[in-house]
Every structure is written in structure tokens, then in C-alpha cells.
Amino acid sequence: MKLTRKLVLAKAKASDLESVKKLNCWGCDLTDISIFTQMPNIKVLTLSVNSISSLAPLAGCLYLSELYLRRNMIPSLSELFHLRTLTRLRVLWLAENPCCGTDSSQYRLTVLRCLPRLQKLDNQVVTEDEIALAVMEGEVVTTPPGSTQNQISTNGLPDAEIENDPLNYNMVETNKIREELGMKPLSRDKFPSLSSPSARDSRSSMRKSHTLDAILLLLRDLDEEELRIVHTTTQNRLQTYTMDLETLRDSLQTEN
After folding, report:
1. CATH number of domain containing 25
2. Where is the composition biased (Basic and acidic residues) (predicted)?
3. pTM exceeds 0.70, yes or no
4. Does 231 reside within a domain?
């Protein structure tokens, strides 16, 4: 069933699509939600218990903060690619979809790696530790099959080559986080080859870089009191680090 303009206006008790901010279409047997390309101002959307398989129509709903999709027919987590532009999205309920698979832990980390701003996933609060872990261990969400996204990457590599290039995954994810932090993206030549003799060190360095990026990303959501705690903890850690260096220096001078 296709969600129509008439049905939306009737449920929302609105006169036009652009004025609709909240909509509940729970259990309406929906398969086609293309109407949302005409509803950029929607903020809270309930689409649970339907037969929706594509999230592409939601990509332009930039004010969306809560999205409920429990018990639909979303086939793959690659559909989350369409939600990456929704920077205000804080609540997502995706459980009981085919895309969730059987490994609930990996599913959760993958969703949070794709959507690190979420505060609640499947009615469970998202923790800072989960976000940091997701950056390192969550799977990369790529463009869904048949997507109209540009098939050539910014580095001139076809998608087929990108899919087989683990280095590109690290580079793309790092640059997405850097962009959110207002930092300049890194070029491909700044990433050492994974096939080089120093591949192991490179992977370790990338993991540390992702951890730092995750921490910096989380700082933006902390209030004044929480930032003061981080500041104090960081100062204490720096003092300890400085003391360790001085102890090591004194020890070396004594030996000489």
C-alpha cells in the first residue's frame, strides 16, 4: 500500500504536507513511503508494523528526531546509509527487521557506527562507551544496491574497487568523522598501505585515530559540568604522563 497525501493529511489533521511535524502510521500495511520526499519538516515519525523495505524517501527529512520502524521488511543495514544526513535523529527503533540478523551485539555496533548521534536505539539508551566501541568494531555501512548515489568516489575509484579495499573503509569513515568535527578530510596518500611491511603498525595507528575522533565527537554533546570533569581528568592524566617522562629521564641520566 502506498502512503498518500490524503491519508497523511487525514491522520495528521493538517492542511498541507509541509506543516506536518508528527505522524503515526502504525500498522497501515505500507510498502511505499515516497510521500516523505515532500515532507521535509517532519520531526517524529512512527512507521512500525508495516512492510517498508527502503528508507531512501527519508533522506531529505532533515528535522527528523525520532523514527520508529519496528517490524518492517528492511532487508539490509545498508538502508541506514539514507539516514546519515539526518543530523538531528536521536531516537531509532529498528528491531524485528530482517536487517537486524542474529548477532544483536554486532547489529547494534554497526547501527551506532553509522549513526553516532543516536541517544536511544531500540528503546535502549546509547552509552558513550558503545559509541567509542562502535567506531572501532562496528561494520561499515555502504551504499545500498541500486542506489542513485554517485558510483564514483571522490578518489576516482569505482564502487566495486572500493568494496574490496579495506584501506578505503578506514579513510572514508575517518573523513566522515573529521567532517562532522569541522576538520579537513585526509587524502588517500596520507593513509599507509595495508599491504606494506608496516601494515600492523598502520592498523594500530588507525584504531587509535578512530578512538580519538570518537572522543572528540562525544565532547560536543557534553554540558559544562561534564566538560569540567573531562578537563580535570585530562589534566591529571597529563600530569602523570609528565611525571613518568621526568622519572624516565632522571633514570637515564643516572645510568649515564
Report:
1. 3.80.10.10
2. 181-191
3. no
4. no
